[in-house]
Amino acid sequence: MATETDPTTDEVSIESTRSEREPPGPDGLPVIGNTFALASDVFGFYERLAHEYEDDVAHYRVAGDTGYLLTHPDHVEQVLVTDAPRFVKGEMQQRQIGSAFGEGMLLAENDDWRDQRTTAQPAFYRERIETYAPVAVSHAEAMAADWNDGETIEIHDAMTELTLSVLAWSLFGIDVRGRQSAVRAAATATRDRFDTSRLGAYLPEWIPTPVNRQYKHSLSSLREFIEELIDERRAADELGEDLLSLLVAATDTGGMDDNTLRDNMATFLFAGHETTALALTYTWFLLGHHPDVQERLHAELDEVLGDAPPTAADLPELDYTEQVVKEAMRLYPPVWTTFREPIEDIEIGGYTIPEGTVVSLPQWIIHRDERWYDAPLEFRPERWVDGDDRPEYAYYPFGGGPRHCIGMRFARMEAQLVVATLAREFAVESITDASLALTASANTLPAEPVKLRLSRR
């Protein structure tokens, strides 16, 4: 399929057929490849690749690495499920975020990963997760009590504060309200460090740029905070059943070393709250631009809950609430792409993907593909009412396969309960323009404050 491209970019026309062994892709400048094109607009760059090259497979080159973009759900399933043992998180991710998460569960491989997952799994059993529901509701109620009719709030900041406090209390048995500064600073520094619109995101961490120096400083402060939490737990009379207690017990019995314990704490403190905060941010933003959806949501909450706060037992009846959150995570997936690296040459979609290269599985593209979704750029929670014939991996906000997000059920429950709790009390109007500017960093981030005006119901 011949394609014409914008002459102002570093891309050129190319003829692609399935008989080629090397996937097609844009030419780039010597050495730096497509780095400038990617940095100027990663979402737009991915969209151009997805639309210009057939067979849902394309290659690109960034900062010395060769990347392969796979944009069909079947390819995602092959990488994450069918051929999962033939892929690893890879050297690129270790170079990028290894200093933050080390050998914790996010980046560990093989037996190390399985052992860590097994240790942590009891904290995420279904019956255990349901005990976290009152925490999410009570913390959301406390936030609602501080909100005022007619007030304007920055919702991403509010949801970050809320989800971090819920996670810390649920998983670690710790009240971090008033003690969030180290985690919040590390989150901000990480966003800046991996903001793909900055060329610094493609530079090694050891180069002493201001962003890199701040990133290292914030990680040091985060480790000190984590050490305090671990010391407090070890000083307790006895260990409980929460995740922190499980991890501490594993180190005390030799099943995990102290470094891995700290790395897992950093992983859960940062990654565990950030994706849920973003899911909620985009949910409120979209509700504020769609009063008809918000009205239907309020009607469901009034009918099911009445004057009572939501509980885990109410969730099966809050169908529309679930659909609203699910649709927000489709349109604005908190994780914009998932990376893997093959440990051997592998054929995908008729093309050979070489060992050790970077494979990108972009939720941002597949969640918005008109092949799987009618009017994909529209916010339509009702699209989830009935079953569908979409491929399974046309929707994967939490990844998939054996390495899907361990906190998936917790995050879904928390998001639905927070929406139900706050929407019982308030209607919202989005002040931020509907064409929300975004930044592709470690997650899909709003590039501007997301402001809402509150109206008490």
Structural summary, described in words:
This protein is an alpha+beta fold. Helix content is 47%, strand content 11%. The protein has helices at residues 35-40, 42-52, 73-82, 90-101, 110-120, 126-130, 133-146, 155-172, 181-193, 210-234, 243-252, 258-289, 291-305, 319-331, 363-366, 408-425; strands at 57-62, 65-70, 87-88, 152-154, 338-342, 346-348, 351-353, 358-361, 426-430, 438-440, 444-446, 451-456. Helix 11 runs antiparallel to helix 12.
Give a concise summary.
With 457 residues, the chain is α+β, with helices and mostly antiparallel strands.
Structural topology:
Layout lengths: L34 H6 L1 H11 L4 E6 L2 E6 L2 H10 L4 E2 L1 H12 L8 H11 L5 H5 L2 H14 L5 E3 H18 L8 H13 L16 H25 L8 H10 L5 H32 L1 H15 L13 H13 L6 E5 L3 E3 L2 E3 L4 E4 L1 H4 L41 H18 E5 L7 E3 L3 E3 L4 E6 L1
Parallel strand pairs: 2-8
Antiparallel strand pairs: 1-2, 3-5, 4-12, 5-8, 6-7, 9-12, 10-11
Helix pairs in contact: 7-8, 7-16, 8-12, 9-10, 11-12, 12-14, 12-16, 13-14
Broad shape: globular
Q: Report low-confidence residues grouped into runs of 5 or more.
A: 1-20, 29-33
* Helix/strand order, N-terminal first: HHEEHEHHHHEHHHHHHHEEEEHHEEEE
Number of DSSP helical runs: 16
Helix content: 40-55%
Structural class: alpha+beta
Keywords for this structure?
457 residues; alpha+beta; three-stranded antiparallel sheet; disordered N terminus
